[in-house]
Amino acid sequence: MAILSTVAFCVALGFGIVAPAIPIFAKTFGVSAFMAGAVVSAFALVRFACAPLAGALLNRLGERIVLATGLLIVAGSSALAGLARTYNQLIVLRGIGGLGSVMFTVSALSLLLHSVGPEHRGRAAGAYQGGFLLGGIAGPAVGGLVIAHSIRTPFFVYAGTLGLATVVTLVFVRRSNSEPAAGNEASARGFGPLRAALGNSAYRAALTVNLANGFTALGLRTSLVPLFVIEVLHRSASFAGLAFFITAIVQGLLLLPAGRLADERGRKPALVIGSSAVIFGMIVLVFTHGRVEFIVAMIILGVGGAYLGSAPSAVVGDIVGKQRGGSVFAAYQMTSDFGAIVGPLVAGFLVDRVGFGAAFAVGAIIAALALAVVSAMTETRKAT
Q1: Are residues 282 and 139 in the same domain?
Q2: Pairwise CA distance, residues 301 & 221, whole Å
Q3: Residue 63 domain-assigned?
Q4: Highest mean pLDDT among 4-13, 166-175, 196-205
Q5: Fewest CB atoms within 10 A around its CB: which of 131, 262, 330, 372?
Q6: Domain span holding position 15
Q7: 50 with 337: CB under 8 angstroms?
Q8: Cα(295)–Cα(288) distance, rounded to whole angstroms?
Q9: In the structure, how many helices (H) and strands (E) does the chain have?
Q10: Cβ-Cβ contacts under 8 Å for 118 (sequence gap 6 or more)
Q11: How far does Cα 302 stand from its chain's mean position?
């Protein structure tokens, strides 16, 4: 768990450094804002499209090989992107990076959930998310200094952090830890490959929650909040950054307690709390006209993020058990990516036509639908 959290920190740190530089670098090739944004979208679209391939490779090669290979692909493509001389080279290389990214994500999640027992899966998922969160907080701060040196430098720094993550993986992840056993708790219950998992109400709940989380947190909130702060609250972009920082702090403080609740009380209560918090936070944003309400909403969304950062993954781990569940993990990852791709598009469409309130209201509705699915799920971890 500590090893994967370290890997997650390295990856998130590097991504936080390079992310602000990508559209700026793309603009240096004389393209439009839409084309600059397409470089970001290419990474996400390839991640989404290649998730089934990553799942198949996971089943065939095992977690350690797929994890290290994925990290190397992103590292290599990032270093080459820093050397790109044309826009086409940049967008192709970022797309290749998307393939490596989904290989890393699917294999890391599988390895994490295979390496701990069901009584620790919630806390393990929370610690893993904590690594991403810390890296995500530190990355932009370091990125500002790196970009000041050169707009190409962040790509090389990102490659370096990924190279470090690869070394950690190859040195500290033992082969025996990355090879799932044939018999397991999940197969005894009749779970397993994707078709069987889809017949499980808990897995469907995890998929729905992950989709809603991707839509509201990774998509809608990330794309709308900075604009909302400037256009509605009439505050600076730095205030939006402060709000995201507060959300991250709240989420980080609650990740392990949320994981403990999921382990000791069950996955369903944690999913209910997390989904309810997202609904409430989005509703507060609908009626926000001042700084105080805005900060309260962001704190509530941080609470929701903490509980949804561990419980859904723990559910998937309960269902897969020790099997090679590449397709099950891949489908789970795809739902979040799909939400992150669609969320900004839907949010932008609604803001242009009916305003920010309607966009945040849709986020609340999506989270409410996820809560309805959760309410019908079968618990996968009995209270202790």
Answers
A1: no
A2: 10
A3: yes
A4: 196-205
A5: 372
A6: 2-179
A7: no
A8: 10
A9: 17, 0
A10: 185, 317, 318, 381
A11: 14
Distance CA 283, CA 182 (A): 46
The reply to whether 109 falls in a domain is yes
- What band does 184 get if pLDDT is binned at 50, 70 and 90? very low
- For 146, half-sphere exposure in the C-beta direction (CA atoms, 13 angstrom radius) is 24
In a domain, 186, yes or no: no
Structure tokens that stand for 33 in this block: 């804002």
What is the total residue count of the chain?
384
Q: What is the 3 state secondary structure string of 150-190?
A: CCCHHHHHHHHHHHHHHHHHHHHCCHHHHCCCCCCHHHHCC
Spatial CA neighbour of 216 closest among 49, 113, 362: 362
For residue 288, give the 3-state DSSP assignment: coil
pTM: 0.80
Residue 152 lies in a domain: yes
Residue 208's closest CA among 308, 301, 348? 308
Within the chain, what is the greatest distance between any pair of CA atoms? 60
Using one digit for the tens of pLDDT, what is the confidence trace for 277-328? 999 999 999 999 999 999 999 999 999 999 998 899 999 988 887 676 788 8
94: three-class secondary structure by DSSP: helix
Residue 379 region by backbone torsions, left for phi larger than 0, else alpha for psi between -120 and 50, else beta: beta
CA distances from 315 to 86, 215, 252, 366 (A): 44, 20, 21, 20
SS3 354: coil
Nearest Cα neighbor of 113 from 381, 305, 379 is 381
DSSP 324: -
Domain boundary among 134, 153, 179: 179
CATH number at residue 371: 1.20.1250.20
In one-letter notation, the amino acid at residue 342 is V
Angle, vertex CA 302, rays to CA 292 and CA 119, nearest 5? 155
Output the six-digit token pair for 249: 């702090």
Model confidence over 91-111: pLDDT tens digits? 999 999 999 999 999 999 888
Are 149 and 27 found together in one domain? yes
